[in-house]
Amino acid sequence: MQKIGIFGGTFDPIHYGHIELARCMRDQLQLDEVRLIPTGLPPHREMPPVSPQQRFDWVKAAIVGETGLMADDREVRRNGYCYTIDTLIELQQDTPDALLVWLIGADSWLNLNRWHRWRELLDMGHLLIAARPDYAFEGLSPDLSEEFARRCVIANTDTLSRGKISLLSSPLMPVSSTLVREMLARGEDVSALTPVWRQLESSGLYRF
Ligand SMILES: Nc1ncnc2c1ncn2[C@@H]1O[C@H](COP(=O)(O)OP(=O)(O)OP(=O)(O)O)[C@@H](O)[C@H]1O
Ligand SMILES: O=C(O)c1ccc[n+]([C@@H]2O[C@H](COP(=O)([O-])O)[C@@H](O)[C@H]2O)c1
């Protein structure tokens, strides 16, 4: 069965943390491909000043030469709010026999019960959660705890299955788009944080 990795994000801008997570899921779970899907109009946060197309172009540039990683512009092209449920439904319609394996970081997981049709979302594919510094699993809301207990399996190629949840084994990476934006605004060197540092610097877009 084809296994498609899905990694959505604002990617404002993309950083090495994102790329490492995409590589981890690809390699550990032997996924056929991992699609990085920049959001167009996010339902859950303010629209970033940097356009969806620009964030998409940087994602594309950042993964050149990365086997199996691809940039998918379906949310950038969408009119209206970009809900993950719509993206997974669309992807499943495009590839009816594929298993969708989607990834979020721990900060997203803690808020998942506020996402649009979130329980249905959990039934659409296998969810991977990546640990993140400063986001503990303690204090999880009861509905999320319950879903986690019911669906949790150890992540490996044999356990991948629709409706399951696993923790991805990934390094703890203290990098965020916020940090990249703040450093650029101060005129600092971000070449250790993102492969597209040249494009970011020359765009001047984060130099407020
Ligand atoms: N360092 C990281 N470790 C684990 N997960 C991460 C990391 N950076 C981003 N993610 C996850 O990647 C997804 C997309 O993240 P996003 O594009 O918002 O980047 P971000 O660094 O969280 O941005 P911002 O600082 O603007 O909130 C989210 O599910 C987020 O939890
Ligand atoms: O579908 C939703 O209701 C929903 C709510 C919050 C976030 N998301 C998606 O989660 C991904 C990560 O979001 P963010 O803000 O951490 O970049 C991104 O692809 C968003 O579109 C989706």
UniProtKB/TrEMBL annotation:
Domain (Cytidyltransferase-like): give its ranges: 6-182
EC id? 2.7.7.18
SUPFAM superfamilies in the record: Nucleotidylyl transferase
Identify the Pfam families for this entry.
CTP_transf_like
Mind listing the UniProt keywords for this protein, alphabetically? ATP-binding, NAD, Nucleotide-binding, Nucleotidyltransferase, Pyridine nucleotide biosynthesis, Transferase
GO biological process terms held by the UniProt record: NAD+ biosynthetic process
Pathway the protein acts in: Cofactor biosynthesis; NAD(+) biosynthesis; deamido-NAD(+) from nicotinate D-ribonucleotide: step 1/1
Reaction catalysis annotation: nicotinate beta-D-ribonucleotide + ATP + H(+) = deamido-NAD(+) + diphosphate
Gene3D superfamilies recorded: HUPs
Report a single Gene Ontology molecular function: nicotinate-nucleotide adenylyltransferase activity
EC primary class? transferase
InterPro entries assigned: Cyt_trans-like, NadD/NMNAT, Rossmann-like_a/b/a_fold
What this chain does, per the entry, is described as:
Catalyzes the reversible adenylation of nicotinate mononucleotide (NaMN) to nicotinic acid adenine dinucleotide (NaAD).
Q: Which family does it belong to?
A: Belongs to the NadD family.
Q: What is this protein called?
A: Probable nicotinate-nucleotide adenylyltransferase
According to its UniProt entry, this protein's organism is: Chitinibacter bivalviorum
> Gene behind this chain?
nadD
